[in-house]
Amino acid sequence: MFMPVGTQATVKGVLQRDLEVELGIQILLANTYHLYLRPGHEAIRRLGGLHRFMNWPRAILTDSGGFQVFSLNSLRKVTDEGVLFRSHLNGDAHMFTPESVVDVQLAFGSDIIMALDECLEYPATHETARLSARRTVQWARAAWQHYTGLGETASSLFPIVQGSMFGDLRAECARQLVELGADGYAIGGLSVGEPRALSLEMVEATVPLLPRQRPKYVMGVGLPEELPEYVARGVDMMDCVMPSRNARNGCLFTSRGKVVIKQAKYRDDPSPVDEKCPCYTCRGYSRAYLRHLFLAGEMLFATLATIHNLHYYLDIMKDLRQSIVLGAFPDRLRVIRAAPGGED
Amino acid sequence: MFMPVGTQATVKGVLQRDLEVELGIQILLANTYHLYLRPGHEAIRRLGGLHRFMNWPRAILTDSGGFQVFSLNSLRKVTDEGVLFRSHLNGDAHMFTPESVVDVQLAFGSDIIMALDECLEYPATHETARLSARRTVQWARAAWQHYTGLGETASSLFPIVQGSMFGDLRAECARQLVELGADGYAIGGLSVGEPRALSLEMVEATVPLLPRQRPKYVMGVGLPEELPEYVARGVDMMDCVMPSRNARNGCLFTSRGKVVIKQAKYRDDPSPVDEKCPCYTCRGYSRAYLRHLFLAGEMLFATLATIHNLHYYLDIMKDLRQSIVLGAFPDRLRVIRAAPGGED
Prior knowledge:
2 copies of one chain form a homodimer.
Chain A (H helix, E strand, L loop, with lengths): L1 E2 L12 H7 L4 E4 L1 H6 L3 H6 L3 H4 L5 E4 L3 H7 L3 E3 L4 E4 L6 E4 L1 H11 L3 E3 L11 H24 L6 E3 L1 E2 L5 H12 L6 E3 L8 H11 L9 E3 L8 H6 L4 E3 L2 H7 L2 E4 L2 E4 L19 H5 L2 H9 L3 H27 L3 H10 L6
Parallel strand pairs in A: 1-12, 2-3, 3-7, 7-8, 9-10, 10-11, 11-12
Antiparallel strand pairs in A: 4-5, 5-6, 13-14
Helix pairs in contact in A: 6-7, 7-8, 8-9, 11-14, 13-14, 14-15
């Protein structure tokens, strides 16, 4: 499955009804860091939880906030207890601990909650990565202890494997986390600027050590052509801002490559973004109209483009799921790998 | 009827399907000036006309471009032949003539096209207004002659009554335009900063002189509480950016007055914008969520707020139409006028 990103309890520009009915999305990702700061997890709890707050009846996964604390905050202090950071909104000091981010996500009522992890910049030395992965394991144990101590909840907690770009550290981290017996496992700290071959190598070093029957989730990936490669390596879940962010920037994914909508060649183009696409956007709107909306700075462009790009991603995943169910995944992967990509 | 404004071939933030299915809108207004400059009327003609371009199967009225030329352009030159102006996009010089704006709107394939008119600032002297109304009549005659000379078209041309805030000039202008025998008539040059009593007075000076069987359209009005007043004076059609623009600015209309969504009192408010409203927004989303989206700068706020405000306007018109059909309009008007308004 691919999870569209709804950072602030909204997938930017798309109505929840269209996410549900038009796109058939089963699970969204929302960001703990952002929603903790605004409107606050206690406000969301008082309002009946995140599902009710954002009018989303299906599943929600919230990240741990770790990635945002480490990427949006230049001023932060990490200790064994947790991480002290300043709000990017107003500079207020806040502390995330393994226990507190479990509580925050339980206040949201998220279906899948993530354990606090430390995210390193790329590149990092082996020693830095080793200490960081060790801390992530300690935090995951603390989170797990806190979570299981609360008794039965409706949420599943996923620990996150770290270890930067070192296969031995990834493997060691995975082995230690597996001892927790969690409902699923994530692989974090990828898509941070490393070459794609290295991301895949880290996944290969990790996935075989994770429980075969439990979902395996690679965070923050990827490009459309990368999705089948992760699936081929045993990955079940992915999320990425790419389909929605690229949409807003005027870049549309198609079966024949990218369409950069501002290009003059689309000025009089009456055809849809992708002739083969059955999405709402492609059913009713031309490239010429989309280009007009984009150049005019109209919001509707983001809506139509995001609907298309999300449909494109979800369609890839649907195709892969079907081939797996039919026992035809290896053949399908060969066909996909042989297909020409590039600019339309 | 109330026509939502879709300046650049989109009602900002709302999908055409929601305008059609969710809101039941029968007719939209689009702006000749904007669409002439970008993407251009010839491009729209090549793409199959405005309905197809913007994926809107129902009626479209386009204004004459006159109002925008006079409000968006400080550099312009008016002659008997037309108006020379500079594009607000790139400074290029363009000329609108009574004939050319008919041609532009026929290229769009608009269902209702408007004759070029001169719009004055408020206040204007009687002499300035007299000369300007005379020019508007001359232009309307030229537009009419050009339009009828083209033979049968699928579009109706409406001339526009001007005359600033002088009842005698409005009446004279109306009498002269009625001689054309057009399918409908508009009253322009209102909502330009004058007191509301004066706008209504100008409508009262004009409507009785227009053909009873033909639609009468007051351009650019109004506030929710003004709509019944115009209808009471014989007005059939109105348009205004207010529901959509106010929505984007965080101001929502309700049966109990305005909701200014950024106010702190809505922070934990689980109720919909308007308890009595059956719109998509009020069916699924709380004031607290809308406030969160607004403060977070999320596009979805504009979408949800615009859907609500348009529904509110359209509902007022529906209520008025029903009371007219039932022969109960005078009673209904009394009830409406007695209802308390103000801030919720």
